[in-house]
Amino acid sequence: MSGAARTWRWLLAALIPVSAIALLAACDDDWSSIEITNARARFTTTDVGAVYFDITAEGADDRLIAAASGIAADVQVHEVVSEGGGSMMRPVADGIAITAGGTVSLEPGGYHLMLLGVGEIPVPGDSFELTLQFERAGRIAVTVTVEAFGGDDGMEDMDHGSMDEGE
Amino acid sequence: MRLPLLALAALLTAVLVACGGGDADRPPFEVSGPPRAVDADDDSDGGDEPTSGNGGASEVLYRGARVMPPLPKPDLVLTDTSGEPFDILAETEGYLTLLYLGYTHCPDICPTHLLDVAKTLEAMDPAHVERIRVVFITTDPERDDAAAIRRWLDLFDERFIGLTIDADTLSALLTTLGMPQIVKRDLGDGRYAVNHATYLIAYTPDNLGHIVYPFLMGGGLREIMAHDLPLLAEHGWREPS
Asked: What is the value of ipTM here, to two decimals?
């Protein structure tokens, strides 16, 4: 009896890696794992905001196609493009493509999410939830931190506030 | 005469070259060759044609984009954020005047651009900053009243001057400055973005805008302005030799 059990264990041990490989091979085409890092938002004094983060895709190519958040009436994927010697913001028609193994950064002056119709403007240090919709990876929930205005370069934000106070 | 914008488009390449090797991982545009002077040649559509050979890479006096012919300073009396008339020529006489046109519902470009200006001034010698006036004119007269503009500008610097303008005057001003007319982009539900020219004009005390600072995707603008603004504040406009 114990001999039979041992045989089964051996079989299982041998089969698991094999089946795992088979599984991976079977969904090689559409398996995608998305990692979102450095998610932060910037608000000014109006009911719009910008959200930036880094997207890393593992597995297959993927595409960020939409986003939503409870704090805004609408969230749109935008890009800044160069046109006629100037720069221009426009909605991204086909979403943002991420190559497998690659990283795409949303950052000031480039890709960003625009929040529209923000009910209550968050203050620096606040955080809020954002849902990203990817073509393959599906929905991903992200917590976004509101960064101090002007603190994007990581220096002088404390000086900035106190100096302005005096004027 | 072609719009200054065309010259600007050509110049943008030179500026980007000048600031190449900055902190951006990817260059915002593909650029090649050393920075060079570009003259007022009407045929600037080609964009990349090198002009007179005076531009050795080491002889660039200013790193902003040269505009030829220079832009006129607006001869307008608008209204500032305290509700007072603001005669642009009279109020900015003798100052290095940095003019920016934008709008407060701008999520990305305008705040990034004006923050670059604010941070550059913050790091400069106060004696130079005293000779500078930053003037903001809204491109969104419909939504931007005096209070909205003041609140927004105070995020950057309380000294920034904000001006309201009516739609017709704005349209005429854009023509004077060689900027394209604004384009409202519908974002749904009655919301809209305002596409507008995205460069800061530096008017020296000769009341001309010889140099502009276009928004740079990928950054680098602070470094460029930190190079130029003290020179312009100290000496006014000097023709690069």
From this structure: 0.73
